[in-house]
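Page 47, continued from p. 46.
Same chain as before, 417 aa.
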Amino acid sequence: MKDLVIQRDYCFSIEGRERPLEREVALITGSSREIGAGTAIALAGEGVRIIGNHRDPSLGKAKRAEGVRMAIEQVGVQVDFVQADITVREDRERLGKALEAFGGKLDFLILNTSGNAQTARQVCVEANNALVDEFLPRMNEGGRIILMQSVPGHFDPQLRGLGKMPSFYDPIAQAKYEGEQSLRARIPKLQEKGVNLLLVCPPEVEDTSNMRLFRRLDKSISEKHAEISDMLGIPGSVTIDQVGQKVAELLKRKDLPSGYVELFSNVLDARSVLSEWYGDNAIFVDTLEIVDENRGIGRMIVAKEYTRGHFNDRVEMSLLPGHIMIEAAAQTLGLTALNGKIDGNSMPMFQGIGNVQFLKTVRPGEGLKIHTELTEQSRREFVGNVYITNMQDEKVAEINGLEAMVINRDVARRLLR
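Result:
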């Protein structure tokens, strides 16, 4: 990252530009290098005042942090860099003291560090939550906490055991997933303070030293990333600059719900939307693309868990049961009908189907595309047809006359008593 900070020419064309984030304050962990530094510099270009952070007190790492600080200072915004290990309480308190020079109030807390295989849980779960404890009382209403997630971390339960990622990344992905869930559990308390949680979930960030290291450890890792991205309908890779600019774009938006996940494409994170009503183990659609007002495409990674019991160990074969394909189809059609938005007053409840055909077997690790089209729709009811294809565009199922009604939570509770 030294080359990125010192040798690259960061030119910000800010004169005459409207900067809605000007003079707001961001604390960014792990911001002396790569994604963290790129994010800090992108936000500085929008006029955001930056509190940067690096963990390692060694001279070389301090010089690297100084290079980022100088690049930000050239933009003309207030900046400070604090050497602090976020897993240590006294160091977190030192970050809190640094905030005093910025007026004592924070607008954006950006959690960018994840640690290595040995420290990932301590960083992603314990330290990140401790930072929220430290800074939430000092955050302004309308503030945002951003968790910098990874695709393997966000979709860890779906990918676990499929061999889609190298084993050395497994403990990191699991810790990142656990950390995300622990922060999601705090959303109601965050909202009481007027603070929202957003997740930034890029695919492979191609120009990081982590990816260079990972490629040395596993020469096929980029192909594995690309396969996962293809199954989810997201880009194969992005750059550090693109991540930083995306964070800046998200912070300008006021319409994003707490828990929103940015996947760097025109697809929605279906899991976070459906979690408004469903438990995680009952959600089978991973992403959703709205094609037009009547058509949508859901995408699904077939997790090992979905095939449990189909069949037992003596048979030595696992297949996706048809009822899960029907449920995934119903979830996708419902999301399409409601334009990807589900809340307490608008949940589609499956009513029935006209007919269904299962045309090919589906095994764990495959990716499915769920193509939906609405054929009838009123304010509270809709009907549609669905066909499901694999990644080779072979049709695996066809479901016609799928019917659902849109209800609210109170009605659902009465119906299910």
